[in-house]
Amino acid sequence: MENVRTIDPESRETVGLLECVGCGHWWISPVPSQEDLVLMYARADAAVVEAGARESYSGKTAMDSFQERVLAHARNWDRSTCLEVGAGGGHLLRRLSEIGHRCYGIDPGQWVPEQAIVPRLEDIPADVRFDVFILQDVIEHLFDPRHFLSLLRERAAAGAMLFCSFPCNESRPARRYRGGWAMVRPFGHLHYFSVRSAAELLRRAGWSMRASQKTRSIPIARSLRQFDLRTLAYELIKGGRDQLNVTAVAEPRSTDQARSEG
After folding, report:
1. What does the longest C-alpha to C-alpha distance in the chain come to?
2. DSSP states of 52-118 as a string?
3. Which residues, including other chains, have CB under 8 Å from residue 116's CB and lie 6 or more apart?
4. What does the alpha-carbon distance between residue 4 and residue 189 come to, in Å, rounded to a whole number?
5. Cβ pair 185, 7 in contact under 8 A
6. Which of 101, 183, 209, 215 makes a 20 to 30 Å CA pair with 166?
7. What are the CA-CA distances from residue 225 to residues 7, 219, 222, 229, 257 (Å)?
8. Confidence (pTM)
């Protein structure tokens, strides 16, 4: 498609923004390895996050539209074991814990001293099986999202649900601005999904998409109520809903898989 600048303000490096003609997926090339990406997030490197990101996440308390949607579902669950990947400051996990759910979080940055949040999936006991997975603005950051979603599927209880959100390249802002779209943020964002590419990714990792919806991170009506002119201006200039919220369920394991894992 085109070359785009990375988000590091001190760098003039550019990378390619590519598109799959089959499924419509966009991705950045080349990209750092997953190991290097984890290290960069752990130190809040300018190549993957903007200045002030650590303070922003650790101090966040307001719930956005995705988190409110998860909480609305959570109030109808029996006591469940939840895993949030990219837990940031942990405020969603705390809300889920308050209404009776058992919660774990993963965040390589460990930006808050929260006992329930650990740097890696491997740091959670292997016998814990999760009923709910929450990945808000996560899979677009991963070198190999299919591999990671497959790892989560291995830790899923029967009938587990997955809630995730990520940039949608079928949105009006993406189609209008292409490489100038605000979500094109190498090396912070590596992937930009169509509905088809998201469904195919999930299928290949052992999940089945059940619902999807384009949305804004912060609804315009809320920005008006809170007199948040900066957010309001950003959303209006951007020109449309450019996030995709997805709900998926774990596909049943085959008899052979169950036998080999038993």
Report:
1. 57
2. THHHHHHT--S--HHHHHHHHHHTTSPS-EEEEES-TT-HHHHHHHHTT-EEEEE-TT--S--TTEE
3. 90, 93, 97, 103, 104, 105
4. 12
5. yes
6. 101
7. 31, 10, 5, 10, 51
8. 0.88
Query: What are 6's two structure tokens?
Result: 């990375």
CA distance 46 to 69: 31
CA distance 145 to 189: 12
Distances (CA, A) of 175 to 37, 149, 170, 187, 226: 28, 27, 6, 21, 30
Looking at the DSSP assignment, which residues form a beta bridge with residue 95? none
Mean pLDDT across 142-155: 97
Q: What is the C-alpha separation between 141 and 10, in angstroms, rounded?
A: 21
Distance CA 222, CA 67 (A): 14
Residue recorded with tokens 């997926």: 25
Per residue in 178-234, pLDDT (tens digit) is 999 989 999 999 999 999 999 999 999 999 999 999 986 655 555 555 555 555 555
